[in-house]
Amino acid sequence: MDMQKIGNFLAELRKSKRLTQDELGEQIGVTNKTISRWENGNYLPPVEMLQILSKLYEVSINELLSGARLNDAHYKENAEEYIVVDLMKKCKEAKKHLTLSVIVACITILAATSIILLAAMLSAPLWLRITSIILSLIIAILGIGVCCALTFDAGVYECPNCGEKFIPSMKDFILGPHTFTKRKLKCPKCGKTSYCKKRLN
Question: pTM for the complete prediction?
Answer without folding.
Answer: 0.45
